[in-house]
UniProtKB/TrEMBL annotation:
InterPro entries: PGBD. PANTHER family: PIGGYBAC TRANSPOSABLE ELEMENT-DERIVED PROTEIN 4. Residues 8-150 form the PiggyBac transposable element-derived protein domain. It comes from Elysia crispata. This is PiggyBac transposable element-derived protein domain-containing protein. It holds the Pfam family DDE_Tnp_1_7. It comes from the Eukaryota.
Length: 351
């Protein structure tokens, strides 16, 4: 017989990603301490397929999708906590006066009471009861309101400091969306995969912010090219390194023709010599990139050569045959690698 917990999980519309949301939300909170100014707003994961908790928000750039309420630190743009809309929720009896949106705000600000935080949200969360509740727990509250009259009143006046601060503080979630945007194409992706992609974007952005905060705390100079794009590349290089999966294609690759022993590959010395070896140059560039991410130095250098392959007009160096300690001879010449190995840039001793 099914337990009450199993029955609850069966009716959870986001049960496929519930474990991921709980884990990420807890991990984000454990690695960062928010500053004074915080903001809460909605963001959308684009999806128009069948889903019970799918929402339509006409004021958002992405109108159809999965709605997520995000708690963001305004100063850094760090995603501190988030809640995925999974359908109607039951508000506990002590907080019934706050309503569902007010209850969502209390969940997103849980654990931040009496710490001097100032919360900025848009008018979709406005509620006098919520203002009183947050004031009792020591959280400042700023929200925009509109006239009840629907008539438009046009009047020129100077913007106040409150309006300026509100517009700046509400950009926290918008900036996060700019760095973690998911394109609306790839319709074959189901909603759990789309949410997973969004979660990876949040994780990358938060990791980048933590790295920047750590460098500032240690008074290290930030490199001018140390942007979000370069950070993504460094993470990918650290994860896959110098390895890549073997791909199978129906068409025969042209580059593998250099491995065909039936084609003549004679060495020649052209008039324009003293060029860099193709294999050594590739090894040097890959080792230099890997050294930035792993910190391991391979001691490789780019070698110049005057010998060229007549078949593919590639400059290749021919090294001396060295005798190893066991009496065998080393045949690690770039000429041999280029004509016998698919990934000729690999070094069996280092990579």
């Amino acid at each position: 017989m099914a337990t009450p917990q199993q029955i609850t999980n069966a009716y959870d519309t986001i049960r496929y990603v519930r474990g991921l949301t709980d884990h990420l939300s807890a991990a984000f909170q454990g690695e960062f301490i928010p500053h004074e100014k915080i903001c809460i707003d909605e963001c959308m994961v684009p999806y128009k397929g069948p889903l019970k908790c799918k929402q339509y928000m006409k004021m958002k750039p992405v109108k159809w999708g999965i709605k997520i309420d995000i708690h963001v630190d305004w100063e850094t743009g760090y995603c501190y906590r988030f809640m995925v809309y999974a359908g109607k929720i039951r508000v506990p009896e002590p907080l019934a006066d706050l309503g569902k949106l007010g209850y969502t705000i209390t969940l997103l600000t849980q654990g931040m009471e009496n710490k001097g935080h100032r919360l900025t949200i848009d008018m979709s969360y406005k509620s006098p009861t919520l203002v009183d509740h947050l004031a009792r727990v020591g959280i400042g509250y700023c929200v925009d309101v509109r006239r009840r009259d629907s008539r438009e009143v046009l009047k020129d006046f100077l913007s106040t400091t409150v309006v300026k601060d509100y517009n700046e503080q509400m950009n926290g979630v918008d900036k996060l969306d700019q760095h973690t945007i998911i394109m609306k194409r790839n319709k074959e992706y189901r909603w759990p995969m789309r949410f997973l992609m969004k979660s990876l974007e949040w994780s990358l952005r938060n990791a980048f912010i933590l790295m920047e905060q750590d460098k500032k705390a240690r008074s290290e100079a930030l490199h001018k090219n140390n942007d979000m794009l370069q950070f993504r590349k460094d993470v990918c290089n650290a994860m896959i390194g110098q390895h890549r999966p073997s791909t199978q294609t129906n068409k025969k690759a042209n580059e593998h023709k250099r491995l065909d022993c039936r084609i003549r590959h004679d060495p020649q010395v052209p008039e324009t010599n003293n060029k860099r070896c193709n294999v050594c140059e590739e090894q040097f560039l890959r080792a230099k990139k890997d050294e930035k991410t792993t910190g391991v130095s391979y001691g490789l250098k780019s070698v110049k050569t005057a010998i060229q392959c007549s078949g593919y007009l590639q400059y290749l160096c021919i090294k001396k045959i060295k005798q190893k300690a066991d009496g065998s001879y080393s045949h690690s010449s770039c000429w041999t690698k280029y004509h016998t190995m698919v990934e000729n840039w690999r070094q069996l001793q280092s990579f």
